[in-house]
Each structure stands twice: as C-alpha cells, then as structure tokens.
Amino acid sequence: MATVLDKTDYVVADIELAAFGRKEIEIAETEMPGLMSLREEFGAAQPLKGARI
Length: 53
Description:
Layout: H1 18-31, H2 33-42
EC number: 3.3.1.1
Organism: Sphingomonas gei
Pfam families: AdoHcyase
C-alpha cells in the first residue's frame, strides 16, 4: 500500500472511526450548550490556535 505524505502535523490512526467520532461530537453539542456558547463566542478568534494540548 502506498503512503501519502502531505504537510499535516497529525496522523489518523483509524479513519474508519471518523463517523463514530462525528456522532460523538454531535451528541456533545446537544448535551453541552455551554460549550456551544463558547464556540459561538470565541470560535472566530481561535484563541487556542497553535496550542498543543
């Protein structure tokens, strides 16, 4: 199998889990309205851009 290299700084361990991850995010969005308010308020500013967590 060929390896595709590009300029990303992350590795996806198992792309088949992407749909499950998206579903988990959607659940969190409905169960955490405070988090969504923060995303709405600060999302455009991206205050954590470049932060390594």
